[in-house]
Amino acid sequence: DLRRVSELLGRLGVKTDGLPIVHIAGTKGKGSTAAMVASILTAAQYRTGLFTSPHLHSLCERFIVDGEPIAENDFTQLVSSAKPKIAKMNREHTWGKLTTFEALTCLALLYFQETKVEVLVLETGLGGRLDATNVVNSDVSVITSISYDHTEILGASLEMIASEKAGIIKKGRPVVTSPQHPIVTRVLNQFCKKQGSPLLQIGNQILVEREIISVDGQTFNVKGPNYHHRVTTSLIGSHQIENGAAAIGAVELLRQQGLNIS
Length: 262
What we know:
Layout: H1 3-12, E1 21-25, H2 30-43, E2 48-51, E3 63-65, E4 68-69, H3 72-92, H4 100-114, E5 119-123, E6 140-143, H5 151-154, H6 158-165, E7 175-177, H7 182-195, E8 199-201, E9 207-214, E10 217-224, E11 227-233, H8 238-256
Parallel strand pairs: 1-5, 1-6, 2-5, 6-7, 7-8
Antiparallel strand pairs: 2-3, 3-4, 9-10, 10-11
Helix pairs in contact: 1-3, 1-4, 2-8, 3-4, 6-7
């Protein structure tokens, strides 16, 4: 249920309409992919807000603008300004009390609005369909590798888990997906067909070829419908090539939608 999130955003005066948004779900790789998308957009001179979870040392790590986490003092002020509205909603208890993640999601969107970001990159916390981040109307959805996770909440089968994560797919908006189990691919195809959303899958519409690998990183080629990029990353592991290809695929879709990215 996303009513609590929508209500709190309204009370905080937060609006995301008109902002290009990349929304990322999956079991593995969504954090890396989100960071890569945000890094590309920042390099393209767009003021970019990145919301990820969990954090390693501080909650401030979840609120990032152009690669920089929110300062502790700014985070304190942000919480203080929103606390009365959060407390009032919890007292009213209309749709139950706000969870910590719901409150943090709203605080992140408030911070991004206050700092005048131009593009948003949001990573889901858990699942997708009912995740607090799914309150936005994203322009591009990315679904990284899906496997068994949080089965007590998302369901005991791959089909059920994939259906929850596919809940971030928006009507008519394109989707990029990592290579998936055939069951997951079938579910994603069904959701995209129902929503009228183009689906681009790594290994199908987007081809990846590793060229160089060493302890210092790897170089790989990404070929899409109208592009070919040769990319080097310091990250190692074949999964990071898939994450990088997904990030490039998402950014290319934003470029097709009008963003000026070289």
